[in-house]
Write a structure and sequence with these properties.
Elements (H helix, E strand, L loop, with lengths): L5 H7 L6 E2 L5 H8 L3 E7 L4 E11 L3 H7 L1 E9 L5 E9 L4 E8 L2 H9 L8 H15 L3 H23 L7 H6 L2 H7 L6 H5 L2 H11 L3 H52 L1
Antiparallel strand pairs: 1-6, 2-3, 3-4, 4-5, 5-6
């Protein structure tokens, strides 16, 4: 994720995440602080994507802001509802550090509303863990957020394991001794393809919990969260498809019974 992209910076980046401004990203920084226009993003009040019109303001002239630093703000106004969201950011030119220092509502407000769609495939406890991960990251707690994301990942693996144990010929012993990457291979028939293809995600989560700093976890959080969401999206799609199949089977059975009953009456 490019943290200096307007949509990522305003709607997805946790507050107090420092962004070092260098010669390499200076042009992206300049584009962000002079951004004018629209951004498409999720509106929790509507429960769907909408278009936001973005306006920005600074405590000093924008040229002074880039040269000496200062405070800035942005207002995102939903063009459909006129609802406004406010963001605040600060640039320390001496240390070349740029960060978002506040917003209302929080990043968690946007993301938790989107996560609720997974209540069909996640238990209540796992859904709470997902929202806790988002809430912690939104408040600058990176390592703790990774802990909850890892629990969700492990929950998906155990769910597949429970199903696999019912398979004829399943051998529990090699599974119990296997590393996570090998467990995923053994369970691949019961796991979303994205998870199997990106099994390294668990290693990233474990490194985050045990070795990375808070700021590193915060910097990588959105990327890892999206990985988890893609896995859940695949499970949700399979769930909805199976539900549609089951409903169609039931309706066909009911129709067949009705037709047969009518034939018998004749």
């Amino acid at each position: 994720m490019n943290n200096l992209d307007a949509k990522a910076f305003l709607f997805e980046l946790p507050i107090y995440t420092p962004i070092k401004i260098t010669d390499e990203n200076r042009s992206d920084f300049n584009k962000l602080i002079s951004f004018r226009g629209n951004i498409d993003y999720f509106n929790p009040g509507l429960g769907e994507n909408t278009t936001y019109n973005i306006t920005i303001a600074y405590s000093v002239h924008v040229s002074e802001f880039t040269s000496y630093g200062g405070l800035g703000s942005a207002i995102a106004k939903c063009v459909r509802t006129s609802q406004e969201f406010t963001f605040y950011y600060f640039y320390d030119d001496e240390n070349r550090v740029f960060m978002k220092v506040g917003q209302h509502p929080s990043v968690a407000y946007f993301h938790i509303s989107q996560v609720k769609q997974y209540n069909k495939i996640l238990s209540r406890d796992k859904l709470k863990e997902f929202t806790r991960a988002i809430g912690l990251a939104a408040n600058g707690v990176g390592i703790g957020s990774f802990v909850y994301l890892r629990r969700i990942f492990e929950g998906l693996i155990e769910e597949a394991h429970t199903i696999a144990k019912a398979d004829q010929g399943w051998d529990e012993e090699p599974y119990s001794r296997a590393r996570m990457a090998d467990k995923i291979e053994l369970l691949r028939a019961h796991l979303p393809a994205f998870l199997v293809e990106n099994k390294a995600l668990y290693g990233i989560l474990s490194v985050g919990v045990h070795a990375l700093k808070e700021e590193d976890c915060l910097a990588y959080f959105e990327t890892v969260k999206v990985g988890i969401e893609l896995i859940l999206d695949e499970k949700l799609e399979a769930f909805e498809k199976q539900k549609k199949i089951d409903d169609a089977k039931q309706k066909l059975a009911d129709l067949t019974n009705k037709i047969n009953a009518g034939s018998k009456l004749k």
